[in-house]
Amino acid sequence: MQMSARKALRRNFLGNSPRWYKGAIFLFLLINPIFLYTLGPFVTGWILIAEFIFTLAMALKCYPLQPGGLLAIEAVALGMTSPEAVYQEAVGNFEVIILLMFMVAGIYFMRDMLMATFSKLLIAVKSKVLLSLLFTLAGAVLSAFLDALTVTAVLITVSVGFYSVYHKVASGKKLVDSHDHNQDTQLHDYHRADLQQFRGFLRSLIMHGAVGTALGGVCTLVGEPQNLLIAEKAGWEFGEFFMRMAPVTMPTLFFGLLTCIVLESTRSFGYGTTLPDAVRAVLEDYNKVQTAKRTRQEFVALGAQVVVALFLVIALALHWAPVGLIGLSVIVLLTAFNGIVEEHRIGKAFEEALPFTALLIVFFAVVAVIHEQHLFSPVIHWVLEQEKPLQPALFFAANGLLSAISDNVFVATVYINEVKAALDAGVIDRAHFETLTVAINTGTNLPSVATPNGQAAFLFLLTSALAPLIRLSYMRMVIMALPYTLVLTGVGLAAIVLFF
C-alpha cells in the first residue's frame, strides 16, 4: 500500500533527521513571518541568528546547509535582506571562497605525504602531553604564515586517514581492502572500546590543533582574512603588524600552550585520552606495510608532494597570490606530477570542500541580515560613546562577544570601518586609532574560539567529514574550547589594559 503524499513529504523533508528536529525547523519557518510583523525586523533578526546557531549546534543531526539555507531563503523572501546584499557579502569574501574550493582540494592530493609524516610522529612521540603540545604549536606556527583554514584542512585530512586505517582493521579487513569507515556494522565487539578511546584521542588532538590556528592566526597579517583588511586600514606591513600585536599575542600564545599542558595533565574538559596500544600497533603495521610496498613511482610521487608542500609554504608566507589561486596551482602541480589525469579522481578531492563552501554562502546571507538590520550598531555606538581610556578594553570585549555569535571577519570589518571613519572625521587621533585597531584584531580573533561559528576554521571542522567519525558535536566543541576561551580572553584583555 502506497503512503500518502503528506506522509511522503514529511519523510522527505530533511531526510533521516529526527522528527523533533524537523518539527523545530518547520516551526522556525512558520513563526518568523509572525515575529517580523509583530516584533519588527531588529528583534526578528536576532531570533534568526539564534535559529541559525541552532542548526549549527545540531550539525550531527542534519548538515546545516539545508535547514540554514531554508532560513536564509525565508529571510530574503521576507525582505530582511536582499539577493544583492548576499551577493556583495559573498564577493567581499571571495578569497575565502576560492581558498575553500581549491586549497582544501589541494591538501587532499598531499594526503600520502601527510599520512607518512604524521604516522612517524604519532609512533615516535609516546607522551600525549608532548604530542598535544606539538600539535598546538604546529597549528600556531603554520597559521601565522599560512592561514587557519589550510592548516585545519591538513589536520582533518591526517585525522580521517588515521581513523580509516584503524577502522578498517577493527572491522576485520586487511589494509589493502576497500572499506567504508562511516559504517560501524562490521566492527568487531572487542575493538569497540579501543575505537571509542581512539575517537577521544583524535578529538583532543584536533581541538588542540584548531585552537593553535587561532593562537598563531592572530599574530600576523596573513593569519586570518580580517587581519589583511585591518592592516590595510592601518597602513601596517608584515613586520609592523606583528610588533603592534605582540604585547597581546605573545602572552596569549604562552598561556595558550600552558593551558594545553594543564588540560592534558589533568585530563579535564575532554582532554587527556591516550592512544590505545592496539591502535598504536595497527598504525605501526600500517607504516611498515606502506613503506615496504612503496614502488619507485610512489617514492617519486611522495617526493613531488614534498616539493609542492615547500612551494605552498613559501608562496603563502610571501603572499605571492591569493590563497585560493595558490591552492589551484597546488592541484595542477600535484595531479600533473602524480599521474592523476582522470576527471573523477580529481573531482573526489572537492567532495569535502564544496558542501562547506555552500554553507558559507548561507552564512553570508545571515551576515547580510545583520548588516541590513544594523543588529550590531547599538553595541558599536555605545562603545564609541565611552571615555577613551575605557574604549580599548570595551572594544576587545564587544568584538569578542559579537564574534562568538556571528563571524569574526564580519565583526572586524564593521568595527575597523567605524573606527577609521572616526579617525578621518577627527573624532579620534592616530595614536588612539592604532590602539583600537589592536583591540579590534585581538578581540575578534581570540574570544571567538568560544563557538564553532566564531571562526571559519572551527566551523569547517564542525561540518567536516571528520566530526561525525570522532563524535565532535557543537556542544562538545564549546565545552572543549571553554578553558582556552577563558584563558585567551582573560590574558588578552589583561594585556590590552596593561599595555594600551
In short:
With 500 residues, the protein is mostly helical. The protein has 24 helices and no strands. Helix 9 (148-170) runs parallel beside helix 22, helix 10 (189-217) packs antiparallel against helix 12 (238-266) and helix 20 runs antiparallel to helix 21.
Overview of this protein structure:
76% of the residues lie in helices and 0% in strands. With 500 residues, the protein is mainly alpha-helical. The protein has a domain of 65 residues. The model has no long low-confidence stretch (mean pLDDT 85).
Main sheet?
none
- What structural class should be given to the helix and strand makeup? mainly alpha
Could you give the distance between the termini? 74 Å
Spell out the helices and strands N to C: HHHHHHHHHHHHHHHHHHHHHHHH
Strands, helices and their partners?
Layout: H1 5-12, H2 19-39, H3 41-57, H4 65-77, H5 83-92, H6 94-108, H7 111-124, H8 128-145, H9 148-170, H10 189-217, H11 225-234, H12 238-266, H13 277-293, H14 296-317, H15 323-337, H16 343-347, H17 353-372, H18 377-384, H19 391-405, H20 408-424, H21 430-445, H22 456-462, H23 466-469, H24 474-499
Helix pairs in contact: 2-3, 2-4, 3-4, 4-17, 5-17, 6-9, 6-15, 6-17, 7-9, 7-13, 8-9, 8-10, 8-12, 9-10, 9-13, 9-22, 10-12, 11-20, 11-21, 12-24, 14-15, 18-19, 19-20, 19-21, 19-24, 20-21, 21-24
